[in-house]
Amino acid sequence: MSEYFLGDRKLGPLVTAMSAEASDMSGYLLMGLPGLAYFTGLCDVTWTAIGLIIGTYLNWLIVAKRLRNYSMVANNSITIPEYISNRFHDHSNVLKCLSSIFILIFFTVYVASCFVTCGKLFGIIFDVDYHIALLIGAVIVLLYTMMGGFLAVSTTDTIQALIMIFALTCVMLFGIQNAGGISNVIENAKQIPGFLSLSQTATPLLDNGSQMKGMFGEPTKYTLLNIISTMAWGLGYFGMPQVLIRFMAIRNAKEIKTSRIIAIIWVTISMGVAVFLGIMGRVIFPDAVDLSSQSLAENVFIKLSITLLPAFLAGLCLVGILAAAMSSADSYLLITASSIIQDIYKGIFNKNADDKLLIKLSKIVLVAVSIISILIAWDRNSVIFKVVSFAWAGFGATFGPIILFSLFWKRTTKEGAIVGIIFGGLMVFIWALLIKPIGGILGIYELLPAFIVGAVSIFIVSLFTKKPNATILEEFEKAKTL
Fold it and tell me: What is the mean pLDDT of the chain?
């Protein structure tokens, strides 16, 4: 099980870095980010990218080494729920159950966003029905995730990360040539009100609220609160299981610095190019009928590839989209299965279950989660960026605060951890579904208020509950100095 779910902590620095970032950068890198830039311009997507870059760097800098060491001290934990439970000596298994439930909920949504990407890609390339394309993509991802486990997922993710950055760079170079140079792209984009501003977003004029008329109205002001809210995407990294699990799996804590350098270079280049492609796509295809809504705008990378590149290169670049979706979906499926089987089934109901049985049950869970994700992704008009943003907020607010408190504040208690996970996770739903629609200053990204609520609740409850026992405090000091 340790090998299937954590690769026996054998990952080298390159695979650790590339697989962590590829599993994080799902279809929203090649479709979501360019689509948002194409639709509303530079402002919203740039502040999002800046927040993510900062979050990536800080996560590798302050969390990676400490979590890797603490997961070993905490009874050699191999999953995030197991680490949290072992860290606080929770013999009641409440923390395991809570963590696993939230992982199941948010990763099922996340996997659905990856399947939407596969469905859109196959549907356009082969001119087949979206739903057939969706099923093809889901089956491909499911099969190799079932066969290989964590090492196979991490290795393929590394290859897919290289494919993704190749695809982005290739389309960018051909696009610049077609558009008459970078300066020409910038000059044409300036003609759209607010399109290149970092304090305004362009406002597409929509027909019946969805289809674009090919024109823009007065730009919408982007306030300081909007900027803070959007940059809060970076907070999500502290709670991303698919990234945190790579920290736990690296073979040597001394190699984390090398991984950090590789990761930040990859993330900065890939997101910068993705944003530029959306801007360039607007210049090359200003009135494209098939990019007339936000959902369809996420096809801009596909349209650029097919229109501008020779057939063979276009095929390789479109593989980049599939790589983005697969590299994320496989990690999400595997972590979900590990949480249900390792943390709930074995941890609570059958402590003596052997590895053969557990791996067999894990594959059954993989199939079940895939089916649910397919049902969520069945709507062909799903906007990948919106689906990803909700799941991202969910993980960031549920696990981000408790991961940070567990690593850096020894006074954190089990009760504080329980309340923090519940309040952080639930606040994502409450804010996104009930408060955010009110608009105004309440229309901020749900991750920011939910993260704050989770952190504050951990702090307050920990202060008013019994101090952790001597054994827990000794483990904290051991992990800090390991």
Answer: 87
Note the pLDDT tens digit of each residue in 400-459: 999 999 999 999 999 999 999 999 999 999 999 999 999 888 889 999 999 999 999 999
In terms of CATH architecture, what is 2-382? Up-down Bundle (1.20)
Q: Strands, E, within 182-226: which ranges?
A: 200-201, 204-207, 211-216, 220-221
Supply the pTM of this predicted model: 0.86
What are the distances in angstroms from CA 4 to CA 175, 268, 368?
Answer: 42, 31, 19
Domain boundaries, the chain: 2-382
Residue 381 near residue 436 (C-beta atoms within 8 A): no
Partners of 398 in beta bridges: none
Residue spans of the chain under pLDDT 70: 1-2, 4-6, 26-27, 148, 206-214, 289-290, 292, 294, 381-385
Neighbour-count burial of 37, counting CB atoms closer than 10 A to its CB (0-12 exposed, 13-18 middle, 19+ buried):
buried
Q: Which of 264, 265, 239 is nearest to 447 (CA)?
A: 239
Q: What is the DSSP string of 18-69?
A: HHHHHHHS-TIIIIIHHHHHHHH-HHHHHHHHHHHHHHHHHIIIIIHHHHHH
Q: Which two structure tokens, joined as six digits, stand for 175?
A: 């696009």
Amino acid at site 219: P
Structure tokens at 330: 């496989």
What's the CA gap between 21 and 449, in Å, rounded?
25
